Amino acid sequence: MAREIIRKNNADRAAANMADYERALIEWDWETFRGWLDYCPGGGLNIAYEAIDRHVANGRGDREALRWLGKNGERRCYSYADLKRETDRFARLLEDLGLGKGVRVFSLLGRVPELYIAALGTLKAGGVFCPLYSAFGPEPVRARMAIGKAEVLIASPREYAKKVAALRPELPGLRHILLTESPGNTYPGATDLTDALERTHAEFHAAATAPEDMALLHFTSGTTGTPKGAVHVHEAVVAHHATGRIALDLHDGDIYWCTADPGWVTGTSYGIIAPLTAGVTMLVEEAEFDADRWYTVLAREQVNVWYTAPTAIRLLMKAGADLPRAHDLSRLRFMASVGEPLNPEAVIWSQTVFGKPFHDNWWQTETGGIMIANYAAMDVKPGSMGKPLPGVEVAILEVDGDGTKVVQEDMATGHLALRPGWPSMFRSYLGEEKRYAATFRDGWYLSGDLAMRDEDGYFWFVGRADDIIKSAGHLIGPFEVESALIEHPAVAEAAVIGIPDERAGEIVKAFVTLNRGQVASDALSKELLGHARKRLGAAIAPRQIEICADLPRTRSGKIMRRLLKARELGLPEGDLSTLESRAGSAT
């Protein structure tokens, strides 16, 4: 476990929105954060009103809200007043189609302006928005639309033709297809969205939705079974706004870039809602990952706050330190990471290369927003998730057949649990009450992750409960082994699983990819085994190492250990709908 501490200077602490964490724990709670919002005139809480309309009502309509960079060099900018007009128009279109409050609107769009307008316009109308990965195949799309009872689908003509057109008979509740970039609308039963919006009046008052009204539906996959539809309500905006200001340290006038795919919960919570409620300029880059292009965007667009994934950071590390030094990145003030735990080596690398660390944080689709974070004014311990948000109660639990017990000892491994009640907590798995109830026990939400808490109150990720390796009486967390392997200069990424062994029960096997210029060989494998043994000791170090060209990962960037294990042991591979099919994608 890395114990290095990156100390924040007094200027960093003073400039942060939350300058004193301990004081904030005493003075701030969810009622405080509710007071940071405006609420609809006459009552009601609506995400889209807080994200757009209130800025216009308060005289900030001329501020740049959305800056879109197309993959072919296009550039489109929208002020908050522009976004209000376009989202009003979309909400009015839904109303004109006879679609009222609660309508289920699904999207298969990528990072294009129409996605953001549709998402916010749906929420403004009181509907429920569900983003899907545009790279999903037909069956994952059909399954999610069936479970979610989709009534409207927004897609490009190409995606609709490939993935949905043939499935229309299996989706009887799907009433309207809205197609982008579709002059003349050549598909029977579909509507040209651009043409329809041009004929729609841009006048609409945001629906005065109640805090508990359903607003967002995000699907998450387990290792087996059908996708789970996590339901979030309009009150989630309280957490989105608070964490944007506290965990991401968004300031007035910031230019903010979240690289997450819109089909992932981060792409909604922190790729749309949090930055807009904070009134900043939200940068959207349509193109996929390319290290030089990313650095160019950061420098040219003068990005202040950057939120990205560990996979992307590791790919940037793989591309070398010369690239960032060739760009002026002096405007970058705060960098954060999400998606899976960030290895200590990556945090130390960023401190060396950028002069500031990436700040890891922890949350899930089910939590809806950031729950644990490394904050702008807080010292960073590389490898740690940080400390809980004010208002969030987190504990390490022992869980067995008799119940739960809070673990008091420092650095003792247990189940990471949260006390229910935060605004962005999921309210159900759609149509699966038993599955939902199983995530709670004795007044705690069980995250499924194992973690530790140190003497200073920092939390450390150990692994998913079902990823833990039991070898000769030792409980081994994959993250610790993977982090040690990544410290070797030849290794770009690592994934660790347990495989059966007659004597030890399980032994550790590691899969690694190599940095540019490195060549796989038996000698290198032996060197890596020796490095791990020296770093971790014989009881924890891997017994086997396999050098791979790439590792299987989800479209949000998480390495799929369970898929590596299934393939190694010849087991069923389970749900592969979120598997990233393009090697090297980071978003």
From TrEMBL:
Alphabetically ordered keywords of this record: Acetylation, ATP-binding, Ligase, Nucleotide-binding
GO CC entries: cytosol
GO molecular function, one term: acetate-CoA ligase activity
Keyword Cytoplasm: no
GO BP terms, alphabetized: acetyl-CoA biosynthetic process
AMP-binding enzyme C-terminal domain mapped to chain residues: 480-558
Enzyme class, spelled out: ligase
Keyword Acetylation: yes
Domain AMP-dependent synthetase/ligase: 55-430
UniProt xrefs under Pfam families: AMP-binding, AMP-binding_C
Sections of the chain in a coiled coil: none
EC code: 6.2.1.1
PANTHER family on file: ACETYL-COENZYME A SYNTHETASE (PTHR24095), ACETYL-COENZYME A SYNTHETASE 1 (PTHR24095:SF14)
Protein name: acetate--CoA ligase
Originating species: Aurantiacibacter marinus
